[in-house]
From TrEMBL, chains A, B, C, D:
The keyword Ribonucleoprotein does not apply. It comes from the Bacteria. GO terms for biological process: fatty acid biosynthetic process. Pfam families: MCD (PF05292), MCD_N (PF17408). The keyword Transmembrane does not apply. This is Decarboxylase.
Amino acid sequence: MTMLADLLSTVFERRMRMSGPARDDARSTEELAEALVGADGEMSGQNLGRLILDRFSDMDADARRAFFDYLATAMDFDPSAVRDALDAYEAEPGRATYRRFAAAAEPKRQEFIRRLNQVPQATGELVAMRAELLRYAKDDPALGALDLDFQHLFSSWFNRGFLVLRPINWESPAHILDKIIAYEAVHAIDSWDDLRRRLEPVDRRCFAFFHPAMADEPLIFVEVALTKGIPDSVQDLLSEDRSGIVAEEADTAVFYSISNCQAGLASISFGNSLIKQVAVDLSMQLPGLKTFVTLSPIPGLVAWLADQGIEARADDQDRLRGLAAHYLLEAKRNGGAPRDPVARFHLGNGAQVHKVHAGADVSDKGMAQSAGVMVNYLYDLAKVSQNHERFAASGKISASSEIRSLSASGKKLMAEELGT
Amino acid sequence: MTMLADLLSTVFERRMRMSGPARDDARSTEELAEALVGADGEMSGQNLGRLILDRFSDMDADARRAFFDYLATAMDFDPSAVRDALDAYEAEPGRATYRRFAAAAEPKRQEFIRRLNQVPQATGELVAMRAELLRYAKDDPALGALDLDFQHLFSSWFNRGFLVLRPINWESPAHILDKIIAYEAVHAIDSWDDLRRRLEPVDRRCFAFFHPAMADEPLIFVEVALTKGIPDSVQDLLSEDRSGIVAEEADTAVFYSISNCQAGLASISFGNSLIKQVAVDLSMQLPGLKTFVTLSPIPGLVAWLADQGIEARADDQDRLRGLAAHYLLEAKRNGGAPRDPVARFHLGNGAQVHKVHAGADVSDKGMAQSAGVMVNYLYDLAKVSQNHERFAASGKISASSEIRSLSASGKKLMAEELGT
Amino acid sequence: MTMLADLLSTVFERRMRMSGPARDDARSTEELAEALVGADGEMSGQNLGRLILDRFSDMDADARRAFFDYLATAMDFDPSAVRDALDAYEAEPGRATYRRFAAAAEPKRQEFIRRLNQVPQATGELVAMRAELLRYAKDDPALGALDLDFQHLFSSWFNRGFLVLRPINWESPAHILDKIIAYEAVHAIDSWDDLRRRLEPVDRRCFAFFHPAMADEPLIFVEVALTKGIPDSVQDLLSEDRSGIVAEEADTAVFYSISNCQAGLASISFGNSLIKQVAVDLSMQLPGLKTFVTLSPIPGLVAWLADQGIEARADDQDRLRGLAAHYLLEAKRNGGAPRDPVARFHLGNGAQVHKVHAGADVSDKGMAQSAGVMVNYLYDLAKVSQNHERFAASGKISASSEIRSLSASGKKLMAEELGT
Amino acid sequence: MTMLADLLSTVFERRMRMSGPARDDARSTEELAEALVGADGEMSGQNLGRLILDRFSDMDADARRAFFDYLATAMDFDPSAVRDALDAYEAEPGRATYRRFAAAAEPKRQEFIRRLNQVPQATGELVAMRAELLRYAKDDPALGALDLDFQHLFSSWFNRGFLVLRPINWESPAHILDKIIAYEAVHAIDSWDDLRRRLEPVDRRCFAFFHPAMADEPLIFVEVALTKGIPDSVQDLLSEDRSGIVAEEADTAVFYSISNCQAGLASISFGNSLIKQVAVDLSMQLPGLKTFVTLSPIPGLVAWLADQGIEARADDQDRLRGLAAHYLLEAKRNGGAPRDPVARFHLGNGAQVHKVHAGADVSDKGMAQSAGVMVNYLYDLAKVSQNHERFAASGKISASSEIRSLSASGKKLMAEELGT
């Protein structure tokens, strides 16, 4: 279809441009933005929107910063208008007064972003626009507020109900696989041959969420290994000369890598949906699968041990496993949530801390972060809801008895080493 | 794929239900709704949401009304919380204070609806839910406000950028065609043979907008006849024994019927986009097409004439054309917009009042509404933007010189008949 | 995609015609045919082929007959050339002599037909051409031989390995459904509503074979009812007000109608593949299905009884069932095969005569052919191969014990009534 | 869909095997082959066929040779049966006698191969089987005859009308691209990055023919560069740091590489169809394209010059161009066809010898074969039919006047250098 699609888009664009606004529209981008928000039909809106998006894409860093400042300030809401509308609403609650209030309480920039999104292909450009915004938003309160508006709209647009789960395999389009290579964030893919090793064997799977309006861009993906028994090392899992198994023989599905792809979708979470749905789908397809686990890094272990005044010492592996179990179950950040970010994610999903393995990731990054220790989080489909509720309500962490006893020994070890 | 899809959904549902909440959950729907809004992960949210949607679908009218009342009142926003948040924001504008304000100003029911939408297949059910709500919302201010929240969210979800244009033809799936028959609102389709006459000939086209999350439901569709010259009667256009032409011979595309399909998407407008995009696509495909017009009803003509104390009299066709032209150009409702709703729609899109025809729709409905008169609105792609701007800014109606002179004679006629 | 496909084909055809032979080529169709067979590149062949096909489609009956005569005689093989080639081959068997022999033994018309098939869309036109040929071939030995060449080539082109099984349901394209209505040969479909009743309910299925080069034309299709227990009447099965069941509750799949669609594919058999593959697919999808049976007409019963001097008498139903069983098991045509054509088909596939039902088809056709009796042929997947082998090797008919004892009583009855 | 397809095939195969012949069938492969040809239903045939294909795939070279010998001899036709059938046919020509003759004249192995092809997925395996056969067939007359039967059947199955043209680009599935890398026969693709350079830029295209029964296997593909003017060197065309152009700016499409993919389809020609159809499609899509040329190797130049006693001498480039033009126009093999195989292919398609370039392929292979000279064959859509006819009828080669005068000077040079 590519030929036809090219043909179509070429002619289409030519025709559209005939009736669209001249590219050399003399108005400033800010004036165009005002016109877009004010336009009362989407007819001219699409042309205005395309012009604004094209201008943004051509802007240098300073111009973009200025554009964001404009949205954050000139298109902010007006507190006094909110107060007036609120008074009117309380005086006579109803459709008209509520409409006035809702309009007053919403910054004009939200409507502006929605109208930009009416332009064909705009969704991906808006996600990229927010990725750009996030560079500045941390240190600037007004841009932080603007970012909340992006986040609010994106939560609505990238609603789980609109996402599509697609398998990624060696039959997937090359331009999608290109992006899998680029976006892999946990265990880097260093070549097409490496990618093929992760996708082509019958005991390997990969799945990604897509949004219909950004069909060429994976949003998040997970890589899965089908194994007999729970693996204790990522080196073995990814080894070039491992011997594969027939998928039907596997009893375990190992989620060994989960990567978010879009910086502009930060804080829009779909990871837990992805894992759960993939687990359900795989269990349908391969009834022999009984165990769904991750093989996860423990990014905060070494830093935490150092904070406690404890050296990691990769050579004493039993000691390390105890310390890691103790860290995962007991180390908290302010507010009481687990200190380890990966633990927070999986426990929040209803998983259980199941096993820890020393010498499991001997890459430079693995040794630096966790002295080579990794952890399996177990997704027991029959218990995830209950685990999740308990964790959400009371912070209670689900853990195997093996982990509990390892944690106890780790605690004792620490006390001894610290002389407390 | 149907067989596989069936297979999939069966097994899938079985598995999902295993780990989901019991259908006999003892909590009230209101308690479930609270739980859904409060749930801090979508994990359990999907199960809760499915349960709530299923319960709603089983409710009788009273229970639904009570459910809407609950959403409208118990899940409303709290004005005092808004005021406090506003104070805090003004004291120190920034991300945290803006987040607090935005949260306070948005009724909880918006988040509730968004979370329902995370459930697979929920979008269509929510559209149906709003269709139900609209029955009550007119007379109830609180429900009117609730409806605005639905409308606000739907505007975001059914953003033009997310819609897909698909041709509807004799190769379309029967279950979609079923809906075309059901939803046709202008010139009823009375059988599959009638439908075939509108879809199969090479000089007939039909296009619809779809949303990816409701793939089986057209949102709006337009029927098009390709003709030589502008037709002056819908009877001829739809006649069983008309002789067709080869598409390449046509110089005119006539949009003779536009139907909205989803009552639950009232006030979410996509009609202008549809016409414009279809016009662009057709002009690409058939370079011989020079003229894009509607053949439209004039639903308010007879009533307006009666208001003026003028009898319509279908037999004096020249007189009628003058009266109709005058009505279209001069009759206004409060606020100054054209009185005729179809005129408002097309003029708002940037179309021109181009021609009027007497004896053009002699169906019962056509005679009752407009004494048989119909009108062509012209979509001149090179002028729609400009027409639209002028109409939006100053209410100026674009009309052909023929229509202008007809209107003048109509005005004169009326004055004479009324003795003024 | 229709719009694009239209666009494509229009431009494509325009361009192709520019460089193709003029439609007003002065050569006779016979000369064109000679040129096509002689052309040593497919380049000009496609243009020649299209021209010949278009001419054929414009011919009247006489011209077509003359065209077939030409193929049958002028493009026949040359016996003396075969003899010479055979001598040469026997003198020195090898690639070159075999090539010469094979070329001599194959009538030129085979190559002619193969070259016509290189033209886009030609396959369906060639199938229609053979359907036309079959009208004349019965009474004309030379055309009979020509038909064998068509049949030989079609067997190769419509090889089972090239066919695609597709479900037909209420989501199928209307133009395909149109053809299902037209081609249903057993129990006529009298309206779109009737069709919907056979396709839309969850306990009804339909499957068809398609060939990739004739994607819009079903070749053969089977209609299936999912039931609890074996049904004893087609009226009940097709009743408008029957109460359906959930597919998962069914224990039986009833093949109640099988229709060949293409007269031009006579004697190219795919029926047995279709039934077997549908049975396998359904048993995968619905593990609850234990029984796969037909509900079949007995078209030759009344005629055979009359031949024996026995009156059918639809009111004595037990007697009729005995006679029917006896007919199915014992009535043979010359050569020893079962006299009943439907019985030959299913027994040849490895099915078993399982049950007979009186009053099972009370339509005019059913009463006239079989006095209302119908039969279930059972497809026991574990036994079809074995049944088939036995039937093929020795003519042994597989039958249930119920049928065997019915047949015995039927035989006795006949002897008594005939006084023998 | 991969997951579902996996699911399907797994369950499907399990069920099929239950009712199929045991894999440990005690019969020899020859006995199975006899049974397959004799089987009078495809029912058991599919199981037999699968068993035979699996056995073949497990055979070593000797066993395969023996299997081919068996087909060539035991399944040959019987000359005396042909003579008898011929006598009967001449005595009374008609359907029955022709059927007998056609059956006698066709070796049983043809029916054997057709029946193997009824097995799902068999087509590709049969193509591979012939590739294997071709290793032995050259030196063995009986195997040569067997190969002709394969060729005869494949010509019918891979009929142009059954082939599908698909664009190959950076959105194509990786497993297809894998094969493009493997099959490129002219200018090797040495990495995925090299492949991307040939597929991703907007001024590069690639197209392949596929057969529906071998959907994952390209049969032949052509790589195209869109350029301004005719390029004079393949190095420039494939250079890593070339600067691309917008497709709409191109006036020339250069077919710079055509590769057959399936050794088992030797002598089944589709190259000329491919070039012609791609030229037509591209000219539709990009009306600016005026010139369609190849940039082709001249594989036989150096060898021919050596035969004449002339040294190639890559440094004198004008001389070389003259010699090359002379070679292309005048060097013939026995029978009068051009000596150069690439020239035979393109001239047979109706192309013209248009330009020659020295220093155009300085790779080792290019220098060794043609001292770096390359040639453009021009496909003038308005003249290909006529060129083809003349070349086919009289061997007349179409050449530009530039080439004609170069050839004349080359001839003169040779005469001088040889002192003749």
